[in-house]
Design a protein that fits this description.
By secondary structure, the chain is α+β, with helices and mostly antiparallel strands. The chain contains 12 helices and 18 strands.
Length: 454
């Protein structure tokens, strides 16, 4: 009896050990150690991809070669790929049984800018802009890094199919810089051809955060943006006889100053709001008062109601100043809002908290930051609005600044170049590795967790 009892207990213990080994074997690939091992295996190839993309940028709505490369990367990783979504948009899905659906977006377009980074893979490319003018082209906003991270995450998630169930959708979006890319992909059938996701994820390099760190901003994180074309009409004539004219340059000058009164006197001081006049064109020479001036204005606010208030204030101010200068109502300044603008990016607070807590265990508590909102624009917010449901959405910041540069900047010895600067270049290795590790971990966590939206 004792021998049988001992054998039974022994078999029971062995079965428990086997179950534990099985469980550990299943969960092991999702921990940071195994993710790092997979990342190290892919790293050199991802760096080569990043440098290729950086050296070969394409402007918004011209991303033909970039889209082909992103589609190839997804196919090689085992995704079912659809191309031509709203132009050069690419989308791929990896199906793995019943479960949650997570969408991860990268952007692809570059900027009309001459690079001055002096890196060995600096861009020397030129292209023709919308007006047909030849311009230099540079990835000065980190979209090349986004694509390299996106590719790395796709490869790793595909290799870990035995650790998760559900669907992952990876999309490569054109024309983020011009604000039309997300809408074009949506109108091209993104959410009719692919499942509605439970979660929408994206990241963006941050030129004010140290590499190795990421940052979350719960709630509204990036602004509503509209770009306005304002035409100020007057009555031209000789500059020696301004009393016989209605000077649109003077009217435009008054508008530049008066727009700031809208922000400082009509918007609560605790509400972020910005009106910036970025371009004024009018006249041909100093001795002629022109009949017309054209202005380009950007309007930004986090809160939707405040944004509407700014637009109404601009309309009222244009009409009021024009009337005070003798302009007839029929010739009041015309305001054209370019379509589409970029809606505010809203990060689901409960998902931000969940991912922040999880990624602290992956990256370390000191490397996951709480950030405040900024007035930059991003059309990523359009995806959650297009689904018709309250899909949880999070876009987080990826640190891109070398540690030594951050220390120098903090000591007042260096001014860090921002994104959209010809000098901006991410610190490649820690930025790329942190991006892949954090996003792969976030996706696996959401696929396998019981997180509930509040």
């Amino acid at each position: 009896m004792k021998q049988k009892s001992f054998c039974a207990v022994f078999r029971y213990l062995v079965s428990i050990v086997l179950l534990l080994v099985s469980a550990i074997g299943f969960s092991q690939p999702s921990n940071s150690t195994s993710l790092n091992n997979l990342l190290e295996k892919e790293y050199n190839d991802l760096v080569a991809l990043y440098q290729y993309l950086h050296a070969n940028p394409e402007l918004s709505l011209q991303e033909k070669e970039t889209a082909e490369r992103m589609a190839k990367e997804l196919k090689n990783a085992g995704f079912e790929v659809t191309t031509g979504l709203g132009g050069y948009g690419v989308a791929g899905i990896l199906r793995n049984g019943h479960g949650k659906t997570i969408l991860f977006r990268t952007d692809m377009d570059a900027l009309p800018l001459a690079e001055k980074t002096n890196t060995s893979y600096a861009s020397t490319r030129t292209a023709k802009d919308e007006a047909g003018k030849a311009v230099s082209v540079m990835h000065a906003c980190g979209h090349d890094m986004h694509m390299a991270v996106w590719t790395g995450v796709a490869r790793i998630i595909a290799q870990l199919k035995n650790t998760w169930k559900g669907n992952v959708i990876f999309i490569a979006q054109p024309a983020e810089e011009t604000g039309v890319g997300a809408l074009s992909m949506i109108e091209g059938g993104l959410f009719s051809k692919f499942p509605i996701p439970d979660y929408l994820l994206a990241l963006h390099v941050n030129s004010a955060v140290e590499t190795g760190k990421i940052g979350f901003c719960p709630g509204y994180s990036l602004a509503n943006i509209d770009m306005l074309d304002i035409t100020v009409k007057g009555k031209g004539g000789h500059s020696a006889s301004p009393h016989t004219t209605i000077d649109p340059i003077m009217i435009a000058s008054k508008l530049v100053l008066a727009f700031q009164d809208i922000v400082t006197r009509e918007v609560p001081a605790v509400q972020p709001a910005v009106i910036s006049v970025g371009s004024i064109h009018g006249g041909t020479t100093g001795n002629i008062i022109p009949a017309e001036v054209k202005m380009e204005v950007s309007v930004r606010a986090l809160d939707n109601d405040i944004h509407k208030k700014l637009l109404a204030g601009i309309q009222r101010t244009c009409e009021g100043i024009a009337a005070s200068c003798g302009v007839a109502p029929a010739n009041y300044p015309t305001i054209h809002i370019r379509k589409p603008g970029s809606p505010a990016v809203y990060n689901d607070p409960s998902v931000c908290e969940d991912l922040s807590n999880h990624l602290k265990t992956v990256l370390g508590s000191d490397n996951v930051l709480l950030l405040g909102p900024e007035m930059f624009g991003e059309d990523f917010g359009r995806y959650s609005r297009a689904t018709g449901t309250q899909v949880s959405s999070v876009l987080y910041s990826l640190g891109a600044v070398r540690s030594e540069d951050m220390r120098a900047a903090e000591a007042g010895k260096l001014v860090l170049p921002s994104t959209h600067s010809p000098l901006f270049i991410p610190d490649t290795e820690p930025t790329l590795k942190t991006g892949v590790l954090s996003m792969a971990s976030a996706i696996l966590h959401l696929l396998n967790s019981d997180h509930k939206k509040q």
